Amino acid sequence: MKLTDSIQFLKGVGPKSVARYQGLGIFTVQDLLLYFPFRYDDFAAKSVFELIDGEKTTIVGRVVTPANVSYYGARRNRLTFKIKQGEAVVSVSFFNQPYLQDKVVMDAEIAIYGKWDAKKLSITGMKILGQVENGFQPVYHVMQGVKQSSLVALIQTAFDNGCGELIEENLPDFLLQKYRLVARKIAVHAMHFPVDEEAHRQALRRMKFEELFYFQLKLQALRLKEKAVTQGLVIKFDDKKVAEKISELPYHLTKAQESSLGEILADMASPYHMNRLLQGDVGSGKTAVASLAMYAAVTAGFQAALMVPTEILANQHFESLQQLFPELRVAVLTSGMKVAERREVLGCLENGEVQMITGTHALIQEAVNYQRLGLVITDEQHRFGVNQRKIFREKGQNPDVLMMTATPIPRTLAITAFGDMDVSVIDELPAGRQPITTRWVKHEQLMPQILPWVADEVVKGAQVYFISPLIEESEVMDLKNATELFGELQDFFGLSAQIALLHGKMKNAEKDQIMADFKAKKYDVLVSTTVIEVGVNVPNATIMVIMDADRFGLSQLHQLRGRVGRGEKKSYTILVANPKSDTGKRRMQIMTETQNGFVLAEEDLKMRGSGEIFGTRQSGIPEFSVADIVNDYPILEVARQEAVAIFADEYLGDRAEFQMILANLGVVDIYD
Ligand SMILES: Nc1ncnc2c1ncn2[C@@H]1O[C@H](COP(=O)(O)OP(=O)(O)OP(=O)(O)O)[C@@H](O)[C@H]1O
């Protein structure tokens, strides 16, 4: 038998079960052996003196009273009896399982799995265990038609047929020794049938290492391949002009901005393909760095493009680029544009008149052709697919690509998701920024306390955002909420403040007009749905009020809060929320405690898991079968170092172990 054989060749597997097992992703014997339990229940019997109140456990004792079933209510009943363990007498009850009565035999030993109540010296039973030799039992994800016990039996059959012996080692010897990892054969067996907890721990450690190591190898291989295969552009920018531009800025670049820009420019000048992520907290000045990189590309005779997720942002960047570079021809391209305007822009892009362009994903549509595209910067990269580069290549352009993100990515995730990328981090805010004061208030405080205070601040010249509650997946409800809030605020402020409403259903031109007017201080208060979440830059706005703030995730709240505190004036964020859940409360608490996006992102990750923050599929973060990127971070880091070392070590190239690794990876042609 081979590992690649279908499980149908195993004894006891008929066509029907083959189909069912396929539903679990099990096709071959190998799939079966690598289908690991997701947890283990500890059924090992314990002495009643070591038990903790509320703990789920197994107790073994001798039955000392007959089992009695008492009925109460229409269908409910309780089975009770007593057992003796040493001198201790323990009361046992089972709810609604009267049929267990037969299994309770006077004077016989019995093992009961259930929940321990220390005060009453009693256990609420969940099941009566047949035998208690091995207390450590695996639990698998199964589905209808496949029982735990049949799955276990099938795995046992596979081992009985010697399939376990066919499992080949896929880690090099020196790593097994260095990290004292158990052999693959042993680990796979122990994942299913551990003799004890320690055996299981060792098996798991080995399988996690293997999974993360291969993952990192793949990233390293990709990275190498990318560097070797794709001929990047050499963008010979004009040093002097760039320096001049920097000196003309109304502010000094922060150290972090300077070094990030330096890294980006070095990539551009090199013949390699830039594959870099620019990460920085909200308001840290990423866009400023990006603009300078674009300028550098233009001084070398290339075009540069900046791609952003919303039209509001595209227009905002268009304006600021025009302001920064009045001597250049800057354009904007969005899908909401008039046909004639669009045609004009497309023509000038193709003939090279337009030197810099910003826009939404309209920038990469088919009809768009560039004359000499040198640099593409994408904002909020996780909102775009990862395929942009391919699209550009298909257009015959091979620009350097820089991705920016304002969602701070915890280091753990950055390594996992972007392990094949170079990363620049802007980890300081421009000088002169004051911390944003964040307060959490209840709904009932809004009218008597918050609104009068906001009114006072408006009189003093403050501009204010009000974010209406988020109703997931319902634009209609979002709109209703925003409109209601708008009405209430109009009633409250009367003529004392100019209020505008902005929501996702508006026409783009209308949205742009409102944003422009808000920037120009024609409005004091902007009521909005979350359409202003990312990137909006109105430095004079200093107050952000978020209604039903507990409905937002931490990262989103952080983004929203980042809309204030963008100038030198003191800024405030008010979270209005009466959270019902503990998570909601915790979120509000954390928001008032820290303004550090990286800390918040770590917390968010702990509270929600990685998938929700980035949407696993989009972000390219794979789903691991045994490893967990948050909790297994130390293993991930070691695996990464080893993967990097392997590819860096030329001597390894000739060794059989290295060939084996490459073959397993399916990337034998790295050096071709
Ligand atoms: N070094 C600096 N000193 C002072 N102000 C700066 C500096 N760099 C940028 N700014 C200003 O700070 C504000 C925020 O900068 P920018 O829009 O580049 O940040 P960002 O990181 O892109 O923000 P976000 O991620 O929130 O969209 C802008 O008004 C910008 O002009």
Structure overview:
By secondary structure, the chain is of the alpha/beta class. Among the domains are: 44-129, OB fold (Dihydrolipoamide Acetyltransferase, E2P), CATH 2.40.50.140; 239-426, 3-Layer(aba) Sandwich (Rossmann fold); 436-594, 3-Layer(aba) Sandwich (Rossmann fold), CATH 3.40.50. 40% of the residues lie in helices and 18% in strands. It is built from 23 helices and 21 strands. A 7-stranded parallel β-sheet has the order 11-12-10-13-14-9-15, with helices on both faces. Strand 18 (499-502), helix 16 and strand 19 (525-528) form a beta-alpha-beta unit. Helix 5 (184-192) crosses helix 6 and helix 6 (197-229) packs across helix 22 (633-648). The radius of gyration is 31 Å and the shape is globular. The two termini are 36 Å apart. Residues 267-426 form the Helicase ATP-binding domain. Its EC number is 5.6.2.4. Belongs to the helicase family. RecG subfamily.
Write a short abstract of this structure.
This protein has 672 residues and is an alpha/beta fold. The chain is 40% helix and 18% strand. Among the domains are: 86 residues, Nucleic acid-binding proteins (OB fold (Dihydrolipoamide Acetyltransferase, E2P), Beta Barrel); 188 residues, Rossmann fold (3-Layer(aba) Sandwich), CATH 3.40.50.300; 159 residues, 3-Layer(aba) Sandwich (Rossmann fold), CATH 3.40.50.
Write the layout of secondary structure elements.
Layout: H1 15-23, H2 29-33, E1 39-42, E2 56-63, E3 68-72, E4 76-85, E5 88-95, E6 109-117, E7 122-129, E8 136-139, H3 148-160, H4 173-178, H5 184-192, H6 197-229, H7 239-248, H8 255-269, E9 275-280, H9 286-299, E10 303-307, H10 311-324, E11 330-333, H11 339-350, E12 356-359, E13 373-379, H12 388-394, E14 400-405, H13 411-418, E15 422-426, E16 437-441, H14 443-459, E17 463-467, H15 475-493, E18 499-502, H16 508-519, E19 525-528, E20 541-547, H17 554-561, E21 572-576, H18 582-593, H19 597-608, H20 610-614, H21 616-619, H22 633-648, H23 656-665
Parallel strand pairs: 5-7, 9-14, 9-15, 10-12, 10-13, 11-12, 13-14, 16-21, 17-19, 17-20, 18-19, 20-21
Antiparallel strand pairs: 1-8, 2-4, 2-6, 3-4, 4-5, 6-7
Helix pairs in contact: 5-6, 6-22, 7-9, 8-9
Bound molecules: adenosine-5'-triphosphate (ATP).
Residues 251-254, 257, 280, 282-288, 406, 430, 535, 537, 539, 562, 566 line the site of adenosine-5'-triphosphate (ATP).
InterPro entries: ATP-dep_DNA_helicase_RecG, DEAD/DEAH_box_helicase_dom, Helicase_ATP-bd, Helicase_C-like, NA-bd_OB-fold, P-loop_NTPase, RecG/Mfd, RecG_dom3_C
Protein name: ATP-dependent DNA helicase RecG
Domain Helicase ATP-binding: 267-426
